[in-house]
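dumping the sequnces here before i forget
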Amino acid sequence: MCTNQLEAAFASSYLQKLNRDKPLIHCMTNDVVQNFTANILLAIGAIPAMVIAKEETADFVHIADSVLINLGTITQWSSKSMLIAAQAAMVTQTPWVLDPVAVGNALTFRSNIAKQLLRFKPAVIRCNASEILALADKTSIGKGPDSQDSTDAALNVAKTIALQYQTVVAMTGKTDYITDGYTTYVIDGGDIALTKVTGVGCALSAVVAAMIGCNTNHLLAAASSCLMMKKAGELADKHHGLGTFAISLLDQLSLMNAARLLEQ
Amino acid sequence: MCTNQLEAAFASSYLQKLNRDKPLIHCMTNDVVQNFTANILLAIGAIPAMVIAKEETADFVHIADSVLINLGTITQWSSKSMLIAAQAAMVTQTPWVLDPVAVGNALTFRSNIAKQLLRFKPAVIRCNASEILALADKTSIGKGPDSQDSTDAALNVAKTIALQYQTVVAMTGKTDYITDGYTTYVIDGGDIALTKVTGVGCALSAVVAAMIGCNTNHLLAAASSCLMMKKAGELADKHHGLGTFAISLLDQLSLMNAARLLEQ
Amino acid sequence: MCTNQLEAAFASSYLQKLNRDKPLIHCMTNDVVQNFTANILLAIGAIPAMVIAKEETADFVHIADSVLINLGTITQWSSKSMLIAAQAAMVTQTPWVLDPVAVGNALTFRSNIAKQLLRFKPAVIRCNASEILALADKTSIGKGPDSQDSTDAALNVAKTIALQYQTVVAMTGKTDYITDGYTTYVIDGGDIALTKVTGVGCALSAVVAAMIGCNTNHLLAAASSCLMMKKAGELADKHHGLGTFAISLLDQLSLMNAARLLEQ
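..and the predicted 3d for all of it:
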């Protein structure tokens, strides 16, 4: 693993702060990953709260430390709640993460919602290469929620989007790129099995939300999150099948600490 | 573990009845814990059925042995179904459990729904200390779905609510108190890891629903449920991380029997 | 296990094709099994995508290789999306699977939706004995989502439904019968634990969707899916409780190959 030791040191200190502060994360995420997301947030020491009713989202944004908005199983009514929450987050300056699951793909409804959400200034966009291309109206070869595009090829687009929306783009894949358009962190490693468990990307977006809920450097917070997920994927059991791998990934995240982050 | 042996004996006989009767539990619960709840009900021998459409809930209450209503990810449309189900349950005298997840917390929408639901006479309210304080309009220090209030401090409020609504309050935390306002069972033990897996409290509410679905003493049924969950938490594997712990908790519930309940 | 070796040989070649083609499966399924379904599809090499908004379903049917429609937690709004998707699938000749969870049971709302869906020509109906009886307006003794009826007793009804709707019925239970009304495959084996994990039947419906997404013989594709699930249930760990069994089932599906399918 060619992890930058500097990034691992940051990840380590950011994780310690997370464990100390126990940020409350307001999650508006998809139906497939609600349980996995909540368990991963608990595993790293954050407090997840899934609140989606349009009557409640704005109020809850006020008491949350950060917000996650994930478009996976978006519907007309949930999109309204998400727009209310994102607007409330902009007003209260609560940092929030946008996970624009499967935008593009001829799914114009969610693509339009994603663009409306971008106006409310997400702190981080966590996505794959196909999704960032879609946000920039570029042709993608995405198929469903997965990306067939390489993050290398999409890096310049990611930088452009980051600059355009004054945000951080955490674009993940075989190689993760985390960029604000000026500075870019590159994270390799991880394991192919991470792409064969549903919701790992979605859960990573939640980890980013937790990290920015207690750390103001959003670029390093996002990079730390990506590094932590790749490291957990490397440490997890890959010898018994994908069911065991998913459980072991959660185990590894719950056991993550400075020493494990720093080990080669 | 300082478990009351008398309670363990009751839990043991109640669990045997549950295994024999295989009650059908109509679950209206939140999106985070649907799977975990269904698997825990199956593990203890009950039959879960998640039915939420307002066109179906009243009819299904008629054929169910008990009903679970959990406000975790409540929305306007699901709240309507829940109100219909609770009213139907009162009419048919089908016992039902209210789990008022995260009431208080400036979430006035769900707090209002919870109070409307209370008029339909739940057999048991399963909650944490912050939630019982919120139901009594007391100031709580809850943060999201978790309680920062101690169950010891909230016991008198729990008794008052139990008397006011002629119900059983099963208030869980480090120490569980199960009370009808006259008699109170106290259950210690369990494990801190139980608070680090999402939906353990929600699943416990489902276990209570299963127990009251085939046992008419709701106070002892609720106490038996709390004891069984704490015992499973003690027996579950805590040496490999939180992913393994959650799976092992489910294992332990599926293997639970009189001998395990009674062992010190 | 008395598995037909011929069926195992087909299952083996169908699984190989699935691994090569990586079909995109448009899943419209219930809230209890979304995660389990997605992970099982990934485990066998398919790409799951849960798309439910009525604004998106018809467009997504166009790019999907097959569609799964499962009525488990149906609501008025999701039923509209499902009807749109099924109609689109008929028009585009995208094969689709109907899983009519818990029809009958005095649940007239979903029973009516199921009959409307049948007009849009599902390639396969994957169900239990109680559900096929309900689709034929016969009296069933189903209780909730589980079947108390035997598949043996319902076989003639299954054949009649298959002929009436020119479809394949994959009716599963202790013995699985997969029939188009003319030819019937019989699959024994499996394990009782498969009935004690929520969503195994629902996930099997998703496996059938994956198999018909890349194999045009829908009868053999469905039979192969049933055989594969029974085999995985036999190979999975049954010595540590139901939590471990569910994870091990996922492990076994991810490790499934020709040799394992063919071994006695």
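Residues 129 and 149 of chain B are 6 Å apart (CA to CA).
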